[in-house]
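Feature request disguised as a bug: please show the residue count (699) next to Arylesterase in the output. Example input:
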Amino acid sequence: MRAKLPHTEGTTDRDGVNLHYEIYGDGAETILFVPTWALIHSRVWKAQVPYLSERFRVITFDPRGNGKSDRPDNPDAYTIDKIVADVIAVMDEIGVEKAALVGLSFSSAIAFAVAAYHPDRVSAVISTGAWSPIVPPKKERADAYANDLVDHPQLWQKYNPDYWRKDYPDFVRFFLDRVHNEPHSTKQHEDAVAWALEGDAEMLIMTQEARDTPEIAIDEDMYRKVQCPSLICVGDNDDVTPPETSFAIAELTGGELQVFEDGGHAIHARFPARFNTLMRDFLARHLGTWKPESRKVTSAPKRVLYLSSPIGLGHARRDLAVTRELRKLHPDLQVDWLAQDPVIRFLDANTERVHPASKLLANESAHIEAECGEHDLHAFQAIRNMDEILIKNFMVFQEVLEEESYDLVIADEAWDVDHYWHEHPDLKKAPMAWFTDFVGWLPFAENGPREAFLTTDYNAEMIKHVEGHPDVRDRSIFVGTSDDIVNRDFGDGLPQMRDWIPKHFEFSDYIIGQHPSEFGSRDDLRVEFGYDDGRTTCIVAVGGSGVGAALIQRILKAVPLARTRIPELRIIVVAGPRLDPAMFDLPDGVEMRAFVPDLDRHLAACDLALVQGGLTTCMELAAAGTPFLYFPLRNHFEQNFHVASRLERYNAGRKMIFAESDPERIATAMLEELGAPRIPNTVAADGASRAAAMLHELL
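Example output, currently without the count:
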């Protein structure tokens, strides 16, 4: 799912070529992202647009030859003067008098050309990975293009028009591997390859044949004409265009030069947190646009910013329990929550303070729902595909800390903050405590070697981050004990989880929102909820993320069969805050409820529960001693490996495979669990207070 959609889309006809554009935001100043080489289209700016469009009007358009723009079949249609004119045409169509232009690689030259030849239309230029003929290209690249194609070409020998015609997909994969040559850049590479495969070899060849034009010369004199401020960003390990190109442009234009250590050609994609921050602050200095300004906060003696994972409600319940214990140690503590739906609804119900910047966050739960199939969520890939949402939300978080002073950030599986602060430790603005109930991405054997490679790569990056920058996390708290670590390694050549995790984490034991031992007697609960009428009460609950519709529908089909064996069976379905109860056809007598804020108390009072494989709900049931069936989502590594391993240790719940669970099997399992309930091992009641004591030391 995209982090933000345009509020306006359109096309402009420039001499018979339709150019597709998109507009985001409505700020007073305009940023126009100039399309780069037509190998790829405007989605290349996905890590910048959602964030910057909160403060600016942002325009993107697809280059002639790719995306939703037309694809002329004449090389003369791809000359530099025509592409420069495209920029002006899009601005005219939208009614933009002046804009800051952002260019990548080839479009760096286009942006500077527009600034040189149309100075009244350009307020600033931001360049990254600049291409320009003022510095000779890499010799092996130039030679490969100019010479005949060799047999069995390797590496840069593939940079040849005949090879593009012969095997365009292989060239794309090679070239974009050089664009994204930094370690742990698999997602950026995959995205770029997908965009490039929307084009073709003939179009690419035409763009090369037409690059030189007498009307507009990309030379040193052109750069000297540029009068507006410019920011030139470059990676010192750029393997596509020589970094010396950017150095020369900075000298000729008098622009600000920013060199990214170990950066490749597309640093805006690989290091978006730093790039976005540099760009925002550069525009603020030169155009007077907005940037965060630190303001003095006079309030509680201690202030905490709490980030609770929005995927489901389990994290929110345990985080609230930790907060309440922390307030016992710091009665005047102010806690601000940076949160999303459905967590906000839970926090509102508990009269917690939600930070106003929360409204700027892109919704992660909605993304997870969009990624879900029929009881199938490839959780690892869903997190990977959430990259543009995560960078948008990180920038919102970072702005909060740039404006306000907090004594502690508590990050409960806030992957964006942990990742980008480890990438750029200098961006860290406050002490951070990191919470998680699992460590390590795990592949499914049936998904093949590519998934195993990717999970290993992500784990290797995490290990490098933690070991290389141990000061980023001031406290790393594993929600559980060392016995809850799965008996696996992090991947080929990486350590065993049970060896590595205890060296880098402390253990709070399990944190439960409110332990069932505090609810009073089970009999009293049953009276309170009306479950004492002699019927067998079964609760069906699928969590707060909205991915449980298929499971509810399957269980509803099992209800008539179950009732033939359990005549006094009462079924209560809790759809959760993100599923509409009206979407389900209910058998007679089935009760449907939406959001139940005290669901944990109901689960402690019922006779049987049927749930997804989320850790929080399953552990609440284990703590209450309630029999339950749990149905892990297919391809959800956490539920199938980390959670299942923990539940096995606690002797809690019966694991059901959704694909193998027809209504008959579900009804049979319900009867069997009621007839021979297992006795779970004890779940700790003091995990929240232990965690609070660890946090107290940071305050």
